[in-house]
Amino acid sequence: MPVYVIRRSLQALVVLFAMSLLVFAGVYAVGNPVDILINPQAEPLERERAIAALGLDKPLWEQYATFLRGAVAGDLGRSFVHSAPALQLILERMPATLELASAAMLIAVALGIPLGLWAGLRPDSVSGRAIMAGSILGFSLPTFWVGLMLIMVFSVMLGVLPSNGRGPTVEVLGVPVSFLTVEGWRHLVMPATNLALFKLALLIRLTRAGTREALLQDYVKFARAKGLSNARVILVHVLRNILIPIVTVIGLEFGSVIAFAIVTESVFAWPGMGKLLIDSINLLDRPVIVAYLLVIVALFIAINLVVDLLYSVLDPRVRLQEARG
Amino acid sequence: MSAPGPLLEVAGLRTHFFTRSGVVKAVDDVSFALARGEVLGLVGESGSGKSITGYSIMGLVDPPGRIVAGSIRLSGRELVGLGHEEMRRLRGNRMAMVFQDPMMTLNPVMRIDRQMTETIRAHERVSAAAARARARAALVAVGIPSPDERLASYPHQFSGGMRQRVAIAIALLNRPDVVIADEPTTALDVTIQGQILHEMQKLTRDAGAALIWITHDLSVVAGLADRIAVMYAGRIVEHGRCADVLSQPAHPYTRGLLDSVPSRNPRGARLRQIPGMTPSLAALPEGCAFRERCPRAGPACAQAPAMQESGGRGVRCHDPLAAVAATAGP
Ligand SMILES: Nc1ncnc2c1ncn2[C@@H]1O[C@H](COP(=O)(O)OP(=O)(O)OP(=O)(O)O)[C@@H](O)[C@H]1O
Ligand SMILES: [Mg+2]
């Protein structure tokens, strides 16, 4: 097990390195930040000085070497726009995004698994069909549109929920969170629901399909033949089996929820990493873009590792491969 | 407990599946009785309704299937129409079932001890330790070495034969009166088949349980069953004492089955097969279901033959091979 974790971490480093190289070159190809960042009316001499201050006068490979040297020491460079380290900018925004993503995932799981189970147990009932129809809507409606509709209904028409921002936050261990106050919840609930919708639909379908398949298995019939109650057959025998794919998907989707948060954050002006990224791309603020993507990749890798470990706990047939990758 | 009459009595059982393509009469007028400690071999080709008969007794028929007629009495108590909870209390307790494929019957993500103790605790209030001790003893009884280690294992750590032993141990945990074994050896290799067959016979005999052994292989039940019932297309076409049916089959279908058993034929001789295929149960023609494959079929067979009983034997044929029918009648 420790061997496994170490090897996975080494693989992660390679991925991060490759990623940084790609993004570095990619942003370079997109455009020259000098055109955006420096006042076109500036004196040529002043211009020269500004370019040199950002390190943009050097050839690309040298800029990358400088970045890499810093990165090894944990310094991902300074933002071109804000006079602050890029990593710091991102870490400041991360709690907001993580809170939004966690709340969304929680909503998706808390509703998706029971609804999917119900629909799987009664596929032909009216309620089962209604749940499935709802999940199709969840899949097909675009996130930004649903977000706008939510704002229309709850903020504009009913006026019960705030339409933007995060509201007041409370510090927990130095991390600002909003879920501890009523006002914070009022700000959180709409963007979280918006972000949850797609995952909710996915979880309903996954759980339903898993349930239907599991119900046909001999081990379910045998469990019933043993005289177990229906509740025990479903909540222990069926659920333990379908939980394996569900946990995998929840883990992997958590990464994509963080990535998808960009849209929701833009719609609800949620002060998270996604909004920072959009702004940084507009300004070609390369250090922030690179740092954002590296942080996201690191998060993905960490989540994948946790999923793998969980997987081996849930499914006794899976043993983490010590010998192979 | 000295209930009058047989331990298990199935009479006129009909279990039908109401599918989109029509009504599948999987079990259609099946009757038999089983005494305490008796072994019944239920024999028939694939799709003849053997498993569904077993599921009907256990109350495990799933929609679109339903018991539409008949009666199943266990120690005189009617099971057809019994409530869910009452049926649950009988399942795994007074009657138990072992399935065909041992690779599929145990839950892959649960430890063996849990799968065993939950069976005990579904029916009795016993401590976890007591249940575990009983589970351990049950594993020993079915010949599983190092039971303590095995209790803490998962199904994938067992071979097929071992898994079937565990399933048998689970079935016998609560000392049921009736055990239904649905082809429990078919998926195993031949040497293991013999062992399991032998052990199961011994265990049920020791426990005083009646056994219904479902198989498509007459040679399997030959040394095991007290009585044999041969099923064809949802009906029992012949039944009787094991030796009688095997030495003097009365129904042409039974004859055909016997002729296709390898060990009963001279070496080198070509095995005779019953011509044709099992008919579709959804579109069964009027009359005897076997008549299209029967070498003796005549005009009378357009009418479905009734079961003709005499001296503990019965056959459902207008023109039986042996003289069962001769003594029948009013
Ligand atoms: N869920 C179902 N829906 C429709 N028909 C069914 C269903 N389950 C079983 N049947 C039908 O019932 C008939 C009897 O099935 P059963 O499983 O009892 O056969 P069997 O004698 O046990 O055969 P095998 O030796 O293959 O196990 C089959 O012809 C099958 O088509
Ligand atoms: Mg069967």
Which class of the largest domain in chain A in CATH terms? Mainly Alpha
Sheet with most strands of chain A = 2 strands, antiparallel
**Secondary-structure class of chain B:** alpha/beta
DSSP E strands of chain A, number: 2
**H/E order of the elements of chain B?**
EEEHEEHEHHHHHEHEHEEHHEE
Class computed from helices, strands and strand pairing of chain A: mainly alpha
- Main beta sheet of chain B, described? 8 strands, mixed
Q: The CATH topology of the largest domain in chain A, please?
A: MetI-like fold
Low-confidence stretches of chain A: none
| Secondary-structure element string of chain A | HHHHHHHEEHHHHH
List keywords for this structure.
heterodimer, A: 325 residues, mainly alpha, MetI-like fold, 2 domains, two-stranded antiparallel ribbon, 12 helices, B: 330 residues, alpha/beta, eight-stranded mixed sheet, four-stranded antiparallel sheet, 12 strands, globular, binds adenosine-5'-triphosphate, binds magnesium ion
Structure description:
- The complex is a heterodimer of chains A (325) and B (330).
- Chain A is globular.
- In chain A, helix 1 runs antiparallel to helix 12 (286-314) and helix 6 packs across helix 8.
- Helices cover 75% and strands 2% of the residues of chain A.
- Chain A has helices at 2-30, 33-37, 44-54, 60-72, 86-121, 126-140, 143-157, 182-215, 218-225, 230-267, 273-282, 286-314; strands at residues 170-172, 175-177.
- Chain A contains twelve helices and two strands.
- Chain A folds into two domains: 12-72, no CATH class; 96-322, MetI-like (MetI-like fold).
- In chain A, strand 1 and strand 2 form a beta hairpin.
- Chain A starts with a helix and ends in an 11-residue tail after the last helix.
- The longest helix of chain B is centred in the middle third of the chain and has 18 residues, at 190-207.
- Chain B contains eleven helices and twelve strands.
- The interface between A and B is medium-sized, with 23 and 29 residues.
- The complex binds adenosine-5'-triphosphate and magnesium ion.
- The site of magnesium ion (MG) has 3 residues of chain B, from helix 1.
